[in-house]
Amino acid sequence: MAIQAQLYSENIGFPMCGSLDLIDNGCGLVGGAAGFNQQISSQLQQLQQFQHLQNQHQRDQTFSFGSTNNNRESIMFEKQRYEIDQFIKSQNERLRLLLQEQRKQQYEVLVKKIESKASFLLRQKDEEIVKARNKTMELQNMLKKLEMENQAWQRVAQENEAMVVSLNNRLEQVREEQASCRFNSGVDDAESCCECEDNNEGIMETKGNGGFAAVDSSNQRQEEQEEKTTMVCKCCYCRNSSVLFLPCRHLCSCKDCATFLDSCPVCRTPKKACIEALIS
What we know:
By secondary structure, the protein is mostly helical. Helix content is 80%, strand content 4%. Among the domains are: 2-130; 232-280, Herpes Virus-1 (2-Layer Sandwich), CATH 3.30.40. The chain contains six helices and three strands; from the N terminus they run αααααββαβ. Helix 1 (2-25) packs antiparallel against helix 2. The radius of gyration is 64 Å and the shape is rod-shaped.
């Protein structure tokens, strides 16, 4: 009976010690599931040893006691087994809850890491999208600017083409006027020569054919002098005029002087452009 009472007292204190060990060792959120599993396995070993001793004690008591004591021992044994089963169930339930809580915490930590990584990647992608949008806007503005410049250059080219056509027509007109002036001056010179011959017949008779030659050469020199005066550069008065000033359209400067002039030397109109005229 003393041995039975001692075993019974050890059995009664066993779950309490196990619970206190679990609390002291912090098998919950502090100690982790690994320490808890190790402690549970050690407790299970102690339970197995206890059952083995209890079975051995029961066999010993069977030989020493009668039928009355067997009844009592069986009741105590059933009670102890029931307590052990309840303890194992409670420990299993506690272990299940602890493992569930640990998995929950691990999932929360994993979710936080994934969220932080995802937020970082999203911020990075947003920055890339903003940069790409700004770059697209810059390229669109540049494209619009280039299109406007292209249209402006096309207008300038069309204006220059129209101006070239107008200048060519003007040059042709000037050439025709010069040709007609030369023809008219020749006719006038011939008429004046005839009049001079009628009025100064005596003088012309004395001078003979040499007088007509002198008049013709004098008129020709005068025409050449007028033509040279008209076509001479109005800046240096040395070279022929070959540059047409715009927008006044005066052919009044040579190529060398045109580079230094800011305005037309005839009408003083500010020079916007100049074109070299190829006059043969």
